[in-house]
Each structure stands twice: as structure tokens, then as C-alpha cells.
What does this fold into?
Amino acid sequence: MPGISQPLVQVIEVHKTYPLGHRSVEALRGVTLEMPQGGFVVLQGPSGSGKTTLLNLVGAIDHPTSGRVLVEGRDMAAWPDDALSHFRAKTLGFIFQNFNLIPVLSAVENIEYPLLLQRVPRAEARARALEMAEGVGLGDSSDQRPGELSGGQCQRVAIGRALVTHPALVIADEPTANLDAATGRTIIDLMHRMRDCTGATFVISTHDPEIASMAEARFTLRDGRLVEP
Amino acid sequence: MMFWELALRNVLRNKRRSLATVLAIALSCGGLMLFGGYVVWAHLASETHATTMTGHLQLFKEGYRLKGAGNPAAFAIENFEGIQRQLRGDEVIGPLLEMVTGQLLVQGMISSADRQTSTAFVGIGAVPEDLERLTQWNPHGLADVRDLAANAALFAAGPELASGDPDGISLGVGLARILDIRMQPHGAAEDRPTVELISQPPSGGMANMVSASVRKLSTRPLEELDNRLVFVPLPLASSLLFPGEEPRATSILILLKDLRSLPLVEARLAELVRDGKLALEWRNCWDLNPNNVRSVRMMDMFFLFAFCIISVVLVFTIYNTMMMSVMERVREIGAVRAMGLTRGDIIRMFTAEGLLLGFAGGVLGLLLAIGISGIINRAEILYIPPMVTMYAKLQILVTEAPAIMAASFAGCLLVALLGAFLPARRASRMQIVDALRM
Ligand SMILES: Nc1ncnc2c1ncn2[C@@H]1O[C@H](COP(=O)(O)OP(=O)(O)OP(=O)(O)O)[C@@H](O)[C@H]1O
Ligand SMILES: [Mg+2]
It folds into this structure.
């Protein structure tokens, strides 16, 4: 367990360079920041500023070119792929801009899926998934497949899916970008509410200044560097 | 886990593509099973045919196979009935025997005084009941060529020989034509054409001659045989070569209850010879019918060839289907990998989908093969097999050969596994961030 005072995420002097043909793109140029336990953190910045890149590093689906990323005090740079997978399954939840639900599973089955991956018994998994579906306000739509749901409902399913395993950290890259403003607002409200009742740390990226203003901690990126907002 | 259920739903996601793949597998696999069923039939028919010609084993006097053809009588076995008794009483061989009988090969001239014709003949002296039993031998229950209407003319006249008919012989149709002999359609015994059989006794001296009457003409499987072969009752044949002596045989023919005991019997024969209890050499039905062995080997090669081509094509079909499926789901793969699926999980997920396609194709192929073989077997499709002069009924033994069914089915699964593996591996190796950016 990390100590009370220890931040959940520490990003230390991180650089990330993507090769692009003969040149290379420096997406992050020395970022250092900390995210508090249980916080609601927003990353903002213009397009191409490196938000997604940073979230990928924190989400342990990519490695920094240099510098260190610690989650719960652990540096995963040298971990084998399977260990990273297990870490993500246990500790992290992902919410994507375009939902990325499994189209052949119903809403409640999508929520259930990560539990079954963790070998939670089927009956228990179903019960927890139904409870979560209720919690994210899916109502009667639990048996419908993603293709039959609205964008807002899809993102509710995605939130349920991300939270059902009780992750310490939920990563959401522009979760409202595919939604209209009003729906986006209710989704952010839902995320706040879920944070309050689960205690999970949320880190989201957004272009929307109004959403950014609701955050407890805010980081602004520009050209791969942290700047004052 | 809803592992298989998820795989099934993913397979059903693109119904048309999956259906096309399943049909491709089913048709290939079903076709292969039908071909396999035909090859199985060919094996059994060839074995049955060889056995009715030569029995399972023949024992000869030493040297007969090398030199005996020049003078079969010189290699005659004097005490063949005693040896038959010895074999029947043998503790190993006895219980395995269906029948043991003597045959005497005679060569000489056959002539018709009436028609003033004569030609060379090869005669097989046989015990009438035993010869009949041999020609009726059908341990695998194949469609009996005698039951086919198309062959009615060949078999209408009853058995080749009869024990109540000591001088009645049967000729090939070709031989009768050479001798200009014609049978009265419904003639009484007195109306049967008479012929003389002439042969040089092994002791030398004057040629010996016996009279016989032609009881039956029948078409022989080979033209060469048709023009020369005569079936003669063993006592009559023996009296031609060894007048006034006990009957002798040039070979002792063994029919086993089950061909699978052949190695056991051969081992026992070797033991008897080694211990000096038997002074004969032997040949089994494969040695005696090398062409049968060659033609079924050729069928096996065809089958193997077809099997390889079809397998390769199927592997590519499944590869193609699975590759499309992977490419359509790149972002989904990135998402579930981010959620914690390992590379192994991804490989399992896609190979499971491939296996389902293979399984469905295999089941459908099996049903197709059973259905079509049933139709073909009922349809009485006739053809003349190589080296034979009578009709055979096309039979496809699918349900009768569970090994072929099992192998084809397993082949489908294996091919599906192979075809799905590369796309699955490709899916598992994607960089998660790249997959999510798609
Ligand atoms: N896999 C990659 N290969 C090459 N260049 C990349 C790759 N991923 C990101 N980049 C580049 O890195 C820079 C930062 O990209 P990133 O996606 O992190 O920005 P972002 O802040 O998320 O932008 P947006 O708001 O448009 O999503 C951009 O210039 C982008 O083109
Ligand atoms: Mg982005």
C-alpha cells in the first residue's frame, strides 16, 4: 500500500519521442507531475500537445523514452508484457473517447467482462455487473448491445466497465469528445459521483474549459511541456 | 467463462463471411471424406478380390515359385491332405482357419474332337465346395458382384464346379471361343460339349489324356486368363498328371477367418519350418497379387495428394477470414489489451474463433459425406474396375470407416488452428497505443 502522503501517480522528467519516417516527434519534453490519491485530475491543452501520450504512459500501455512513471510507487519500465497486463487488469480502468465496447456483448455483459477475465465466478460477476449498471444509470438498457445504445449510454457502460473491478486509477482520454455538451456534462457528473463512492483516482483529458474548471487538480500541456493555465 | 460463447458471437458477427468459410471447409472436408470412403472401399474390395483369387496364404513345395511354373506337376505335394490335417490341428493356426484346401495347377493342351480344335490351357484343379466357398468369400459385406443384374450373365450358370459332377469342368468364355465350343442354352448333361485334356506327366513318357465335359462358361477377370483358364475337379486334374495314384496338389491354400491374423500365422509357419515339422514355403495374398497392392497404393497416393492440396487451400481460406476479422477489430483488440488481456489471451481468442469455424465446417462436412455416400450407395452406380471384366458397384464407405471420419474431422480442426494462428499472433503483437489510434 502506498503511504497516505504518497501520490498515486508520479511522473518524473518524462520524455517521449515517436519515430516518424526519418524525423522524430517529441511528444513529451520533460514532464514532471504528481497526481493525488482519490483526486479528480484533468489534463488539458491544445491538440497535439501530448495529453494522450501522457495518459498512455500513466496507463502502462506505453513506455517513456526517458524519465520515470510510477503508479502506486512502482516503476513498470522493465516489467514483462504479461505482468503489465495483470497490473492493468487489477489496478487500472480505461474509458475511451470512442467507447470501444465489445459490440457482440450486451451492456451488462460488457461490464461483466473484466470480472470474468479475473475469474470471478459467473453468478457473482453478473450480480456485480447489474449493480454497476444500476449505479451508472443504465436502467432498462442493460440487455442492449452497444450498437443499440446512444453515445451517452455507451459511455455509461464504459464507466461501469472501468469501475467494476475497483481500480485505484481510472484513465479517460477525452471521454466527452464524442458526446454533445449536455450529455458530456452528465457523464462528467457521473464520473465525479463514482469517484466519490469508489474512492478511485480519475485522470481525464479534455479540450472543454468548463469541464477543466470542475477539476480538483489541473495540468495544462503545450508542445509536450507543462505550462501554467 | 463465456470464452466460447464470446468466440461464437464474434464468429456470427459477420455471418456471410463465416458461412462462406464454413461451407468451404464443409465441402472440402466432405469431399475428402467421400474420397476417403471410396479409397477404403477400394482397399476392402481389392483385398476381397485378391483373396477370392488366391486365398490368404498358399503353401508350396520349396522351389516351386522359382522353377515350378515350368513343370508344376514336378513340384506336387504328395501328402497334402495330411498337411491340411496338421494345419487344422495346429494349436496356433487351427483356430484361425476358415478353410484349408489343395489346388493342383495343370498345364497342357485342351482339344475338342467335335470341332477339330485345340489350344494350350492352364487348369486349376480344385475341390468344388472349397472353390465355391473361396469365390463367395466376402468378410467385409461388400455389395456382392453376383447380385448385380449387370453381371447376371456371368453368374447365371451356378458354381464353377460341383462334387456330384466329377468330369464337369468350366472354361473361360475366350477359351470356348478359341475352341469354337458353344453351350446349349438349357441343355441336359448329355448335351454338354466334351473336350480332352492332354498333359505330359512329370515322370516323362507318353502324354496322358482325360475326357471332361464343359458344365459352364464364365468370363475370367483377365483376358489372358479368359483365353486359357480351366477349372477342373481336383481328382480329375490329379488323374491327368498322376494316373492311378493318390491325388496330389501343387499348393495348399489357406483362408483365414480374419486377415489380421496373417502375421501370426506366418510366424507360426516359420516356426514349423524351422523345427523341421513342415517342408514347404509359402506366399501371402499380397505377394501373390502384387498388382492389387500397387493399385491401392496408387489410390492412397491420390488421396494423400488431394488431402495436401485441400489442406493448404483451407489453411489459406481460414487465414484469410481470420485476418479480415483481426483487421476489422484492431481498436477492439487495443481496448481489451488495455483492460488487461495478455498476448496469450488474444491468441486464444482468435484461435478459438478459427476452431469454431473448423468445427462447424467439420460437422457439416461429416453430415454431407454421410448423406451423399448414402445416396451414392443406394443409387447402384456401376463401373468396371481395372483388371477385372465384371461390373462392380460403386460403394463409398464413410460410416463404415470411423477412422477416416475422425481423421478428416480432426484435420478440419488442425487446419483451422493453423489458419487462425498467424492472424491471432499478429493480433497479439500489436502495440496497444497504435491499435487504439486506429
Ligand atoms: N504513435 C505515434 N507516432 C508518431 N507520432 C505520434 C504518435 N502518437 C502521437 N504522436 C504525435 O505526438 C504528438 C502528441 O500527440 P498526442 O496524441 O499525445 O496529442 P493530444 O494532446 O492527445 O492531441 P489531441 O487533443 O488531438 O488528442 C502529436 O504531434 C502526435 O502527432
Ligand atoms: Mg489525444
In short: The mean pLDDT of chain A is 93. The radius of gyration of chain A is 17 Å. Chain A is about 35% helix and 25% strand. Residues A 51-52, 173 surround magnesium ion (ligand 2) (CB under 6 Å).
